[in-house]
Amino acid sequence: MSKLMYRCPRTGVNVDIWLADEVTPVNADTYEHVMCPACAHIHFINKTTGKALGDKGK
Ligand SMILES: [Zn+2]
User: Fold this and answer.
1) Closest to 53 in 3D by CA, of 22, 2, 7
2) pLDDT digit string, tens, across residues 1-56
3) Are 32 and 17 in contact (CB under 8 A)?
4) Residue 4 CB: number of other CB atoms within 10 A?
5) Which end of the chain, N or C, is more open, meaning fewer C-beta atoms within 10 Å of its C-beta?
6) Ligand 1 mean position to 25 CA, how many Å?
7) pTM of the entire structure?
């Protein structure tokens, strides 16, 4: 398990989630789909940067 922190693009809330997979150099620059506890929608989050796919924020 590895922890991932990201900002929910819908609510702007910072969220911590646990991933089932370890982030390794092989899969580090990939997007993980997560069920967001803040808005109950699914986001695609970059495992390295914590940036949400389609996030218009900085
Ligand atoms: Zn969300």
Assistant:
1) 7
2) 788 899 999 999 999 988 777 667 666 678 888 999 999 999 999 888 888 887 76
3) no
4) 17
5) C
6) 26
7) 0.74
